[in-house]
Design goal:
mainly alpha; D-Maltodextrin-Binding Protein, domain 2; 3-stranded parallel sheet
């Protein structure tokens, strides 16, 4: 999971938009959980130290994942980077505003960054 989140942060640098408070927004459910908040914050801090890019975490309840992405897509307010569960990708893949990693990275780069099982989902 840590490698996947690191890759998401790297993608954030590519897709970063100008914001007043942060360079990148990162919407995820782990940040709202006591057990994961410290890990996510540590990754955000180390990413910021390494790149100079500030990341604003936006937490949400795991059970609200699909609803959050659909509603934020409709209001043109998607985060720069977001965490989703792999099984929901087929539901969310056609939302306007989402970017497919296949567009950002070559197949070789994706294979170097992600587990084969994740790439097999499309």
């Amino acid at each position: 999971m840590k490698k996947t989140l690191r890759n998401a942060a790297a993608a954030a640098a590519i897709m970063a938009g100008g914001m007043a408070q942060a360079d990148v927004t990162f919407m995820n459910w782990v940040y709202t959980e006591e057990t994961g908040r410290e890990i996510i914050q540590s990754m955000i801090d180390s990413f910021g130290d390494a790149t100079g890019i500030t990341v604003q975490p936006q937490g949400y309840a795991w059970g609200e994942m699909t609803r959050n992405y659909i509603l934020r897509s409709r209001s043109n307010n998607l985060p720069d980077v977001g965490q989703v569960q792999g099984r929901l990708l087929p539901i969310l893949k056609d939302l306007p505003g989402l970017v497919d990693f296949n567009v950002l990275y070559s197949r070789d780069e994706l294979e170097a960054r992600f587990a084969p099982a994740l790439l097999a989902m499309g």
